[in-house]
Amino acid sequence: MATLQEHEALPSRRSAGAFPLRGYGRQELFIADRAGPVSAGVVSRNLEEVFTTTGTAEEARRGAEQLAEAARRTSDERLRVLALCKRAEAGVLEPELRPEIADEALSAVREARSLCDELGDFEEGEAAATWQTESSIVVKLIVRFVAEVSYASARCQVRFAPGDEEAQAWEKRERDRALDEGSDAAALCRVLGCRKGEAASLSTVGDAYHVMKDATKAVDYHKQALAVFKDMGDKSCVAFAYTKISEDYRELKLDAKKASNNMKQAIVLFQELQNAQEEGQCWHHLARIHAMAGEAESVIECITNARTLFQAVKDHASETRAMETLVQMLLDNDRYEEAIKLGKEIVTVNHAAGDKEGEARSLTKLAEHLLRNYDWANAEKVASVANLLFKSLREKEGIDVTQRMKDIAEHQGKAGRLEASLAQQQDFLHLPQPLMIDPGRKKRMQEAYNAFAKAA
Fold it and tell me: pTM for the complete prediction?
């Protein structure tokens, strides 16, 4: 497996074959501008922006659309590469993983890499010589495209890794690829002087080790990224690195104190930046840390802070995810009534936001909690409403799940009512208690009677 040091010298073993230089000589120092001021300088700024550390899937999606539109207007394939990388990033940033999201993101990365290959190809020696002698803007920009594609690919490999039951198979197939591409991107960015890209790529390598549950290496790479971000003086990126280190300590090292300290550092920085969205996410992460330590009241305080911030930026989806964390903590601490009350509030928040899918899913979770606590009547009502919502959305999986929940609640409710009715009439019906089926009972009773008669 390659290390970052093995990728220090350009061209690296992966990117050497993908240097898109052929056909872009010194005479084409600027990207063709057929419909507006789209110059190499603009593309350079776009490259810097795609090495993102914070933001939402929606913001990434809008950025991808803008780049794709610019690519269509100018017929420039390099802008199209950036648009595809940005589209992959939107999938990575989606809070809820679904197969179609993963497929779209990975497809975008494959297409971006294919475009880079089509733009031009040098032998390793020729690429190295060109890098040493050429100083044109285009050469440097194209190498940065390769770095961005490697970065996007590594992030996708990490984000869309399967669950624990498939982790071993994923490790064999994709571990080296994610680490190599992250290292490639970091090495390319280092040579090009793109500090943000270098640090973001180092962080992605740390993410890969995090998925593989290698706590020591995950923390090490995230701390390397933190050092570069600090050297840059970018507070937002520094805060991002602190959240990564905090997650390493919480999920891998199970060290609540260090996890909490790092997350608090991130909160302070986002407060200084007045970034309510990211600060809210940090309060949510801190709530999980306190939940791990069994500090219920601190969890409630953190979620309250997170909700206030998410409400301020009108992000109901993040607010309901934070509320769900609190619901689980309340259930874990046998505070059932509070949990159910908060679950109903989640439904209300989604309904007020006009989020039908979110409302249906929150109703489904509420019905699940009711079923687990044997509240059959209310579980049936809630599952029925969720079922109707999923039908209006034509979502088959949701329809099937809620129908099963509804059937279970209805069956258990009827069984409970029948048992209660039989108990009330016990003295009059002369039924054995408990009422049960006993195959062969009649035969055993006959044999016992025959033995008694013979003895008499």
Answer: 0.70
